[in-house]
Amino acid sequence: MSKIIKTLTIAGSDSSGGAGIQADLKTFEEYGTYGFSALTTIVTMDPDNGWHHNVYPIEAALVAEQLKTVFAGGPVDAMKTGMLGSVDIVRVVEQSIKDNRQTNVVIDPVMVCKGEDEVLNPESANAIRDLLLPLATVATPNLFEAGVLSGLGKLSSIEDMKEAARLIHGLGARNVVVKGGKALDGKQAVDVFFNGSEYTVFTADKIEPATNHGAGCTFAAAIAGGLANGLSVDEAVAKAKDFVLAAIRNGFAFNEYVGPVFHGGYRLEQ
């Protein structure tokens, strides 16, 4: 039997299945890896209140116990973080990465739920910036998160995205992908990748209807899956882009509020 490739997600639960830990584990499976998980938050969405999100953090000590379980077998081949929920959880994650000398770390600095536009916990956002970005092999903020982390505020152009990526790289992340997606005006979805010396701009025609719930989580998990399989950062990011585009193309309308990506889309199209 060939070597088992191990991946880890430290993230929240999305019971609708499109994002969070559910998206990560499905993506890891599509990449042929064995997925471990440490649950940090439980998110519910209320169909009787316009799909309003309720976020319930898990105690940091319980997150630490989960990570002790995962790392009992040593470091994994790659890991990613998602919604972390509290400063104490961020500190637990930082210490676990350091104690286990974990490499191939993808930090997805989740600050908002889809459809929301306020930082869930500003103190946690600051902790991610100060404690986790310096440990990141790749950081994958969306447009809103990149604006917060870089201090630039609202980003509205590719040049803004490049500057945000440069500033976030300066905070310690070795590679940065600013996920513009469909948020920029125009007919194309745009993401900007910065490796510390060169920028790569990824563009694709926007897909309508945009069944893109979970696209950001899935993208970060796909990068982790690529790194775990031995791809370079550049190769892992490029493949993750193709993976997510296929997932969006094959997404579906779950209800009137949300359309999740379908994580098996890339495999089905192959």
Task: Describe, in plain words, how this protein is organized in 3D.
This protein has 270 residues and is an alpha/beta fold. It has a single domain, classed as Ribokinase (UDP-N-acetylmuramoyl-L-alanine:D-glutamate ligase). Helices cover 38% and strands 21% of the residues. The strands form two sheets. It has a six-stranded mixed sheet with strand order 3-2-1-4-5-6, sandwiched between helices. It has a three-stranded antiparallel sheet with strand order 7-8-9. β4, α3 (87-99) and β5 (105-107) form a beta-alpha-beta unit. α1 runs parallel beside α7, α3 packs parallel to α4 (122-132) and α7 (215-228) packs across α8. The mean pLDDT is 94.
Give the CA-based shape.
Answer: globular
State the helicity in percent bands: 25-40%
Q: State the total count of DSSP E strands.
A: 9
The Cα radius of gyration reads 17 Å
Distance between the termini: 25 Å
| Number of helical segments with 4 or more residues | 9
Q: CATH topology, which one?
A: UDP-N-acetylmuramoyl-L-alanine:D-glutamate ligase
Q: Which residue ranges are poorly predicted, with pLDDT under 50 across at least 5 consecutive positions?
A: none
Spatial order of strands in the largest sheet: 3-2-1-4-5-6
Structural class: alpha/beta
CATH superfamily: Ribokinase
Into how many domains do the coordinates divide? 1
